[in-house]
């Protein structure tokens, strides 16, 4: 919306993230969300968390990239990265109990932080009702 109004002071870029989901047999490894000490540049880092359904979930990564494809080798590298970082937090989980991997993109501001602005804008909404 800001670009439509001519504001070029920031842009939104995709940040890719991956999670690994472990079997419910691993859910007893923690009852809390375990975070590492945040890095001032990279953010909070990967975490270990018990899901509502009793599984253990590891991740997410945070990769700023515009490449649409990744190779098999890079996916393996990502899994190794998640497992090694999470093992520093909870050493006792069994990586062989990984049952699923998820990935997605989330919005990241070019300013590195939230953008809160007060602007007056005129938006016209039209509603069409079909019978």
TrEMBL record:
Pfam families to which the protein is assigned, alphabetical: DAO
Signal peptide extent: none
Gene3D superfamilies linked: D-Amino Acid Oxidase, subunit A, domain 2 (3.30.9.10)
FAD dependent oxidoreductase domain residues: 11-114
UniProt-recorded name of the protein: FAD dependent oxidoreductase domain-containing protein
Higher taxonomy: Eukaryota, Sar, Alveolata, Dinophyceae, Suessiales
């Amino acid at each position: 919306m800001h670009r439509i109004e001519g504001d070029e002071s920031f842009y939104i870029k995709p940040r890719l993230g991956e999670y690994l989901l472990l079997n419910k047999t691993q859910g007893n490894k923690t009852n809390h969300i375990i975070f590492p000490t945040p890095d001032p540049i990279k953010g909070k880092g990967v975490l270990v968390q018990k899901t509502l359904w009793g599984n253990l979930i590891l991740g997410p990564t945070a990769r700023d990239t515009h490449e649409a494809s990744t190779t098999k080798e890079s996916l393996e590298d990502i899994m190794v990265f998640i497992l090694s970082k999470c093992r520093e937090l909870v050493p006792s989980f069994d990586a062989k109990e990984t049952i699923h991997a998820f990935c997605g993109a989330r919005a990241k501001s070019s300013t590195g932080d939230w953008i809160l602005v007060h602007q007056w804008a005129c938006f016209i909404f039209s509603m069409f009702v079909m019978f």
